Amino acid sequence: MRRRAVIQMIGIGFLAGIVTGGVAFFIPWLPDQASEEAKAIDAAYWFVVIICAVIFALVAGVSLYSCWKFRAPPDDEDDGSPIHGHTGLEIYWTAVPTILVTAMAVFSGFALAAAEDLPDKHGTIQVTAQQFAWSFTYPELDRTEGELVLELDKPMQLVLTAKDVIHSFWVPEFRMKQDAVPGVETTVPITPIKLGTYDVICTELCGLGHSVMRARARVLSAEDYAKWAAGDSGDSAETTTGEGGDTSTEGR
Description:
alpha+beta; 2 domains; five-stranded mixed beta sheet
């Protein structure tokens, strides 16, 4: 009888975990993937989220089931029977979390390595942060702009630095985030895979104007990028307005 109750609670907990994990996975919580690196980052994110959702549901399900199944009658005021620890159960609840945490660390390590792996032939853009603006220098074009312009499917390395305090570069659709530190050069690999216009956001509190420290990032086709590099603004590319007023272009 006791063994059947334990099997029931574990079964209910796993079922709740699968349902919770499915709900978490199939609802579109994240912005669109607009870079190759976003695929690896999202894979690591969902790997961790699904594990956490299943474990949470399992623990919560077992707890609720135990409160219902083994509750004392209203008139029972006796102390519970003395029990002794279960060695096998203690081994399980120590070994399983250890295995899961190790798996999450290893998976995340491989995902980060894949996201940072750029081919030898890649472009470079110098990104300078200062209170409260971004500037982007294109060495190949010998020009500096107030917006980030990228060519579709072309790997780029962004080299970040700051003039005053620590800032942090982030484009949600690219997923990659990196601090810009005074006196230090940090890098961000980006391979854009979706045409569109996105927000460059500072995610490090850098002063009173932190909330308005934003810039525009545009991903253009090879043809439109060539026009922009030649002096055309590139705004002639066909665009559509998406949710939240963001401007995006249908990619591949």
